[in-house]
Hints:
Shape: globular
Number of domains: 4
Number of helices: 10
Structural class: alpha+beta
Largest sheet: 12 strands, mixed
Mean pLDDT: 83
Distance between the termini: 50 Å
Radius of gyration: 30 Å
CATH architecture of the largest domain: Sandwich
Number of strands: 53
Strand order of the largest sheet: 8-2-31-30-7-6-10-4-3-12-15-14
Amino acid sequence: MDRTTVGVTLFGLLFIWATAAPTEKKQGVDIYSYHINSTIHSRYAITVITSRVENRLSESKEVHFQVKIPKNAFISKFRITIDGKTYDGVVQDKEEAQQQYSQAVSRGESAEKTSSVGRTLEEFKTSVMVGASSKVTFELTYEELLIRRLGKYQLLINVQPMQPVADLKIDVAIYESSKICFLEATDASDLEFGYGLTTTKSDKVAWVDFYPTRQQQTSCDNICGKNGLNTDLIITYDVERPNSAGEIKASDSFFVHFSAPTDIKRIPINVVFVIDQSGSMSGRKIIQTRWALLKILDDFAVDDHFGLITFNNRVDVWKPELVQATKTNLESARSFVRQILDQGDTDINAAVLRGVEMLNKHSQDRSASILILLTDGMPNTGETDTTRIQANVKEAIGGKFPFYCLGFGFDVKLDFLEKMALENNGFARRIYEGSDAYLQLQGFYKEVATPLLTNVKLNYTGAVNLTQTRFSQYYKGSEIVVAGQLTNTLETETTGTSKSSKVTYKHSTKKSTGVLLQDTYIRRLWGFLTVKQLLMKEKILNGQEKEAARKEAIDLSLKYTFVTPLTSMVVIKPQEQDVQVAQKPKEKERVNGAENHDSSGTSGPTLFVPPPPPPRPAPRLADPFYIGTHVRFLISSTGQQKPLCYDQPAPLNYRLLTDSSSDYFMKGKLLGHGFQETVFDFKANYHLKLSTKNIRYYDGLNDLTFLWEQEPTERHTDSVSLILKDNEMDITMGTIRVVFLRHKKNGEFFLWPDVKLQPNANIQGIFGKANLQYEELPGSVIKIGHEQVKATWSTATDYRRSSAPVLGCWLVPYESVLPGRLSNFILV
């Protein structure tokens, strides 16, 4: 080969090379060894992924190394060994790395940027040209501090070598100074591996080994295939806590203090939920939100107090003051939640300030207050300046209680929510759209639902350079972690307010001067935690304080070789001077309708990402004029009246039927002669998707696929009934029955619904009115309600029948027969 070409991507990873090699098929490239080794010392995990690959062909071949790492982690080392030479990455200030990138671009070398963010993982990719019958070794190291949530630590290791591997080994070693009381290893589908996995545990040490054979990597259920394993190995564990004052580890003049007292009674909570019900929350978002709130209401204790606020362009309060979680109040709250509907704009400022006002008016004595905001968009009415909103909220709360912000989906500006939460002792979290969104919401609430202490302060003598030492609240199942540098004998004092009184815990330990190789992790843990907290401070500070936090974060990142949002890892190949720049990504968001993956400011071409659908238009007083094709709908009339028909604009996605009382939602994509796809959601657990090719059904446990024209099939539960016969699908969910027929016209298939039963008068959507009564006036005028419209005698095909007969009908404007403005039923 003439020249070795190296390209690296890590979400914001930039590729720069002087020559570009074509991408070929993977044939002839063998990953003969793939090892993942993770070592955990007192919650601090260092994971090394090593992949050894051989090009067995007689010509050069592009070889790929692709892994996923936890978002909370920092890459600390990356190395490529090829042709007997090793190329190490060097961490630099991002601006310095950018200069090398810009110089490469100015020389005419290609430059690309890509990014791909999942819920908990970031993707790292590397490609390198390997000569005939040659080998390459990739080695990636990342580090993370495991966070205790709901009483467990979790280590997640993605296992996806991209092909079956003869030598595949995952080794995890856990070393704790307290007894390990719980250990479990599962895969992402929550099923324990039935092969190649062993767990061993002594008092303070545990091992997890996963050595699947090549055959096992292709023959297991769900997570295996011709490309080998594709799963996440999830290891959860916890330790005993015999000392309420906590656990201290010290070495190399550094210490870490873990505090998680359990001998305290739960503090009653005062919580206000501020729920976005604007138009952009339509469909699954609002259904999942209602479902989550109903579940959360079940978790309240009788001595808790709570309030519910919904908002769009106006603020609606369930009760003007917080009320006790009595049986009567909870039942009333459930009725309120079931009636939450989506419509209007988004006034975040007024809604949050109202929530603060309610909490401030309520007695805080012997209780803990929490404010929770759930929104899926940006403020577009009332106060819309995000900086002023943040200032208003911070002033109103005044540090009295934490504020948590949950951003639903990718239309929300998470940076705005994150700063607002951090300024008020809380945090922001994205809720990902999907069938488990309500579980994400419920899971978050469980983390903060059991406060044990408020106003927690940790004081230390004999130590400097401490990480955060003050916490507004401490919750059951979590853990407070403080690290610092020792100057003398360490004495600690932890104080806080419990349900009944103030509590104090004391602890002391001698300064350790000995340096054991395996104990250098305490120094790195301190560096990791300090950088994390400096990055959070940098987001909320201004002026010189912001610059000081930024500089300190950069200096520590360079010292500990962490790839952070402020640093980059540069791989410089000797002689040829090819440059690759690896950057810590920002989580993708939508900006002006397009996905924004990284704000590094780099120039040069980027990999093309298809733009997502445009944002939902703001509500209007009248419907816009839709240009495009139309599909003719028939609507039955009462008595012996002739049917009405109207032309519906297409192609568009429509809300077809919704029933808030039963969490029922049906939507459809109108295209061509009818619907190309329809989706049902019912009680959050049930999900049904009909396309012209097949039918997918998920009931919370089973994921089934049916084919049109297959043998007659029936599936029944207590509240759902599915009957498939040939090209007809009979669907009953709760009290609503709809029959879908599959038709074919001009060689194309399409779907059409026939609503058979909808006893609830509150059902909304395009098919919200099953029948319509009108009066026929002279001159081809139709009177519907109080409105008179000009009609034309026409025809329409009745696709609600398998025979699809052509019927005569009065053609009227769609505005006259729809139960509301058309824009109310359009989904994007």
